[in-house]
Request: fold
Amino acid sequence: MLPPGQQLAAADRWQIIGERQPRASDAPWSLTIAGLIERPQCWSLEQIQAMPQVTQAIDIHCVTRWSKLGMRWTGVPLEDLLSQAGPTPEAGFISLVARSDRNHNTSLKLADAISLGALVALSCDGQPLDSSHGGPIRLVLSDRYFYKSLKWLERIELLEHDQLGFWEATAGYHNGANPWGEERYLTSDLDRRETARLLASRDVSDRELRGFDAAGRSLANFQARQAILRDSNFERAELTGSCFADANLSNARFANADLRNVSFAGADLEGADFIAADLRGADFRGAALTAATFVSADWPRAGFRAAIFDAQTRIDLAALDQLMPQQAEFLASFVNRT
Ligand SMILES: Nc1nc2c(c(=O)[nH]1)N[C@H]1C(S)=C(S)[C@@H](COP(=O)(O)O)O[C@H]1N2
Ligand SMILES: [Mo]
Reply:
């Protein structure tokens, strides 16, 4: 089943999200488990490979609105590793740490990790995991957005108190991450006064304003170059001539907005919604469009709602590749005409 607000990726496509490779190192791969446990362990990759393996179907759901269902993952249940280590009664959380340049991490409630069947995976759909997808060893679990599935798992720590992960601490990703309840982002901490001041200035360039609410506003020539506007709401806003170049607009909502001659050049538009927006003269060159939507899911049946384009709308052909199949098909009919 597809959780609310998600689209199905093409079966033969699997996007790389976040870090693209592990930290360069000659040290052999290993997995350490430490913290509130009776028996600290450090397993070599070979030891993990030699443990009993299970294969289970796990659906993945990226917070930027794409999903892949029924992937077959093979590896060692996290529960098996935990029972070798013996968590103490105080252990309530696990922190997962990657072998990556930024020591990328995320965390889970210990009880959730076990009840949701978290797997320390070595292969997927019968193939050893690609390095870009977390090979040789990553975590994967169902029923949490995919940012809880850590690539290049190197260390598991059992903790009494939660330790927020990289995306959760720096990008406002919801720590609950339950896709069935759309726990995508924390609500913004911008107060109404500050929002009103920024709207009046029409300039948020370089600012970090997750969850910015500009729905229905008249904001022609709004300046938002390089701003971080994840999960912002620009529905029905009037934004002609505005500049969002190089901005981060993942999951931003532009439905029914007037976006004539707006620049989105180089912007990150993963999961952004442009349904019924006016995109005549808009510039998407160099923008990332994974799982962005331009047409409602009922297309091409009667009553669908779609963005408006003209010959001056600029979209790279290559960007169509990043879209989900139905969106790509819809956009191709436009791009090929121009
Ligand atoms: N080490 C590490 N793990 C990570 C990330 C990351 O940046 N670094 N990104 C997370 C996010 S947001 C997603 S959607 C998935 C993407 O996994 P994929 O690249 O195999 O599709 O990895 C998750 N695990
Ligand atoms: Mo993600």
About this structure: The mean pLDDT is 96.
